[in-house]
Amino acid sequence: MKNNYQAILFHPEGDYVTDFTGRATVQEVWEEIAEMGSRWIFYPLGFVATDKTIIDTPEGLEFLKGKRITTVQKYLARNWEINKDGICEVINDCMPLSFCYDEESFTTI
Asked: Quick one: pLDDT at residue 16?
């Protein structure tokens, strides 16, 4: 069975869209994410996924690999409610995402 990969582009508050669907490799999706620029006011958090599961993550969010898209969506939404200002600061200042997201906080959802 051939895998099809796609980009999952999350707003830090948990909403997401899919893009670059039907790609044969994870690398193809990352290359397209790198070249997309921003179509929105913000740069989304890009992940590579199958139809339901996160396959690869941005640096600092590796603990989300293998999780369901809906689980990651809930995690991001909860963290947005708790730490919106800190998340915006990290993203705007191009600091590592691990400054505002961590595996310990994930295990509490």
From this structure: 95
